[in-house]
Amino acid sequence: MDSNKDEAERCIKIAINAVNNNQRDKARKFLEKAQRLFPTNQAKSTSNKRLLIGVLAQNGKPPDENGSPVNGDGPTMRQRSHGEEPDVSARGASESAKPYTADQLEAVRKIKSCKDYYQILGVEKAASEEDLKKAYRKLALKFHPDKNHAPGATEAFKAIGNAYAVLSNTDKRKQYDQYGEERTNPTRQRQHRDFEADISPEDLFNMFFGGGFPSSNVHVYRNGRMHFAHQNRQERRGEQQRDGGLALFVQMMPILILIVVSALSQMMVTQPPYSLRYSPSAGYIQKRHTSNLKVLFYVGDRFNEEYSGKNLRNVEKSVEEDYISNLRNNCWKEKQQKEGLLYRARYFGDSELYQRAQKMETPSCSRLSEIQVILDG
């Protein structure tokens, strides 16, 4: 009997690993084998089996703790009818106590069945930047995990954010149009690195809407999955305890090489003659203004000796180009934030937020308009 118990525990461990690798058929096979070998009510086995039962409930009717199938009148089916469908994480399953509608569940299913980023956003391949923004705003609000509690809503929300982040980037969009459909499936967890977003879904949402929904849980996105922050901390502590000194050194090697290469590059690259910011540590302490646009910049002590005539004009031209480029970037961010707040206020019918958004200033855009008048004149 003890040998059966040991073998049952081994099967349960194999089943847990299979769940983590998204191999549900294999997990089901070993779970059922474990229950046949040693049906028990001991705490350890019961907790493992309950965990696996919750996970496997997404792929058919799982066996109960005694090894017999759960019928449609059992507690698992009743829980699912009330919207408490299991949600798989990296280490197990937890049930959502928040309700969701059949329409929300169907919408999530449609997003996860999309074959490319254009389908996810519901736009044509020739869609403009404005079309992408409109599509993202609509879908992001609809699928945000704090509003849509259907199973898979978090993955759908991440897929929507990733789709917009890639298609709104000119270079990445060109690469995706050429290779995307062959090299990645946007709704699956194993995405090709070339077509992953450089910004998290929550950060992108906050950039558009000036802040997300209030949430009681802290979520961390990593490797295409959402984990609870306390789970990540526990995993990191475990990994640190297991790693030896040699493993740590191997991990640090790329960083050390990068530091050395960066230092050598700095030694070989000529220091620029100006900075748009006051930087005593780099020697930029003397204040100057360009002749045309009166842009403030800082130079070193020997600037007047080294730059004059045509060289000085070239430096001032470069200063003004950098300044205008910074203004354009800041203006875009200010407009995005203002438009996001206005859209959010209209969507939720928040008059106070709408008034605040209307009064929001865009100083970089105003300064850019002033400069344009000077250049045109």
From TrEMBL:
Entry annotated with the keyword Glycosyltransferase: no
Gene Ontology BP terms: cellular response to misfolded protein
Region (Disordered): 38-99
Topology of this chain in the membrane: Single-pass membrane protein
Cellular compartment(s): Endoplasmic reticulum membrane
The name this protein goes by in its record: DnaJ like subfamily B member 12
Biased composition (Polar residues): 38-49
PROSITE patterns: DNAJ_1, DNAJ_2
One GO CC term, this protein: endoplasmic reticulum membrane
Pfam families: DnaJ, DUF1977
GO MF annotations in UniProt: Hsp70 protein binding
InterPro entries membership: DnaJ_domain, DnaJ_domain_CS, DnaJ_subfamily_B/C, DUF1977_DnaJ-like, J_dom_sf
Domain spans labelled J: 116-180
Transmembrane segments: 246-269
Source species, domain of life: Eukaryota
Keywords, in A-Z order: Chaperone, Endoplasmic reticulum, Membrane, Transmembrane, Transmembrane helix
